[in-house]
Design brief:
Its EC number is 3.1.3.16. There is one protein chain. This protein has helices spanning about 55-75, 80-95, 150-155, 160-165, 205, 210-220, 225-240, 265, 280-285, 290, and strands spanning about 5-15, 15-25, 35-40, 45-50, 105, 110-115, 120-130, 130-135, 140-145, 185-190, 200, 245-250. By secondary structure, the protein is an alpha+beta fold. It folds into two domains: about 5-260, PPM-type phosphatase domain (Phosphatase 2c, domain 1), CATH 3.60.40.10; about 260-304, no CATH class. The chain binds manganese (II) ion.
Length: about 300
């Protein structure tokens, strides 16, 4: 298990100071020979990049893109315009390795940055590809980004249910990427700064192994971002680790207290779908062993 440590900084807002704390990890997973994911968690920019393409092409795409993102983070103030310029430079970097890259080489780039270029500071999510940004606010988890994938397009067109999408054979096919044959304009979502918010930025190696409920569960259990990142990585590996796994957790202010309804007794028994049901919960607390899955499936030991 790689070492994960938290980092922090204090930002000044019109109505006072706010501490940001974050942690990040990237891991090869259990089935892939190399890690083609890359990550940057450097205030004010937090991004993951999931490279694709044979040979070392995918690795070149994701590391070049993250290097340009690091350069941007170090420049201080980030705007959409500056970001798109950096991505255009990353495309040139990728194309400058003609032996290793081709039309099929590319990378996702997905994350969040603090925009202080206007009067009122705010978060902006950015996305190209099928890595994701989630936000947990007041106990609810929401996916802020929309995947650029064949499967997502089929779901949006009503031709596939979200359940059918989960293990679809075209699950890995994305419709937009940072790469030689692409334009590099991300989708953006503007997000208000709210103390207690927690962002999760991740590659599809996490979301193949954990559902939204699973992600929220590990956040609830782990107020510290480094602990949350570690717990999610462990669970994703335990559930199969079929792809490279990259996770960033960013806390805005301190993580909120979790109320009694999602206490350890209830969640440890894998009952998150029904934590709101008081009867189920007391049953689970009385008989924890019976609530564990025991069908021998190797992917059932950690919550999804
Ligand atoms: Mn991936």
């Amino acid at each position: 298990m790689p070492k994960v440590t938290a980092d922090s900084t204090t930002i000044t807002l019109p109505d006072g100071e706010l501490e940001l704390t974050w942690a990040a990890v990237t891991h090869r997973g259990r089935r892939r020979d190399v890690n083609q994911d890359a990550v940057l968690a450097q205030f004010p920019l937090f991004v993951v990049a999931d490279g694709m393409g044979g040979h070392v092409g995918g690795e070149i795409a994701s590391t070049s893109t993250v290097a340009r993102m690091r350069e941007l983070a170090e420049s201080g103030t980030i705007t959409a315009k500056a970001l798109e310029k950096s991505l255009a430079r990353a495309v040139k970097d990728i194309a400058s390795h003609p032996d290793a890259t081709d039309e099929a080489t590319g990378t996702t780039v997905t994350g969040v940055f603090l925009d202080t270029s206007r009067d009122e500071p705010h978060w902006v999510t950015l996305n190209i590809g099928d890595s994701r940004v989630y936000l947990v606010r007041e106990g609810m988890i929401a996916q802020l980004t929309t995947d650029h994938s064949v499967v997502q397009e089929l779901v949006a067109a009503g031709r596939l249910s979200p359940e059918e999408a989960e293990n679809h054979p075209y699950g890995n096919v994305i419709t937009r990427a940072v790469g030689p044959s692409e334009s590099v304009t991300p989708d953006y979502v503007r997000v208000e700064i709210v103390p207690g918010d927690r962002f999760v930025i991740c590659s599809d190696g996490l979301t193949k192994e954990l559902t939204d409920y699973g992600i929220r569960h590990f956040l609830d259990e782990n107020p510290d971002p480094a602990d949350a990142v570690r717990a999610m990585l462990e669970a994703a590996l335990e559930n199969g680790g079929r792809d490279n796994i990259t996770i960033v957790v960013l806390n805005v202010g301190s993580a909120p207290e979790i109320d009694d309804e999602t206490d350890e007794d209830a969640t440890d028994t894998a009952e998150w779908e029904t934590v709101d049901d008081e009867d189920e919960e007391s049953d689970a607390a009385a008989e924890p062993a019976a609530q564990q899955q025991s069908d021998g499936d190797d992917s059932s030991t950690a919550p999804r």
